[in-house]
Amino acid sequence: MPRIKFADVTFPPTGMPSAFEIERRLMNHLYQLRRRQGVAREDSQLEGADRIKIKRRAEAYRHAIDRMSGMAHLDNKDQNRLEVFRSGAELKSVETEHRADEIASALHAEMPWMAEATERVWQDMRASVRNGDPAPRLRPLLLVGPPGIGKSFWARLLGDELLVPTTVIEATGEPAAFSVTGSQRGWGTAGPGKPLEGIMASGVANPVIVVDEVEKAGIVESSIRQRFSLTEGLLPLLERFSAATWSCPYFRVSFDMSWITWVMTANSLNGLPAPFLSRCPPMHLPSLTLTDLHGFATREGRRRDLPDDAIEAVHEVIYAIEKPQLVSLRSVVRMLDAVDQVLNRPVLH
Prior knowledge:
By secondary structure, the protein is an alpha/beta fold. The chain is about 45% helix and about 10% strand.
């Protein structure tokens, strides 16, 4: 799998001595030098002024290395956290157009009502293969449609098919951009954002990041009346060129976030600002039909190894509902869960 330079830092050579070790070596060197010159003290001790000078030089050397690395402002703990990027980050590839066809086919077979989203991803994957990209360049998606039609489920399925990790950010529980971008030191919850944390944990630079119900994200205002919104925090990450040198407010280091596949979901466009919509034009998806619900129940039931008569019982419940538009995939999953529990209920003696 190809790897890319992910963090814009220069890591010191492996086995770099500590400031204490450098100081010890300099002291030994100075003592041996003076001994050869015949001016070393018999008790092998250096003068206090010599020790102070050596300590300063050892610290200056370490500081110079840190400045060259671009991590001088970080403490040892955070520098160690970035060590995972010493050899870069991995990209999961789609090697051929045939493989892109297989992924799109699997998505469409599972969720045919998401055809428009699948078509977009399919074309992007094929274009990336033709361009010789080391991994798929997928444009940000904003999936707009009724609740319960499987927008987030489709995004997770996409991640599974691409063989990359998927991180879901619930916008309703994340009232600011901090969940995406992280927050700078000084805030009580200072730390990197979830996308970067996920990449640090997996070592994969092109995960799928799902921002669920993005239109419901709130705004946080600091004590000095600075406003932070989720959509504003997303803007530089949705443009490929700005994302390639995106600066993390926590680490204050630039990272190449341009390979992330962004999938935003929304029930409506209410409250979404124009700059955000210009970067990911909305894709309006239809409500589920009885055929969609029937097919999903069949596939999910067989995946659970439920008997045909149990799956047919779920179909009958779906058909008995007067307004199928009120039935969601969650409803079907709950029905299948109930059937599964009944079939696997332990026998009482």
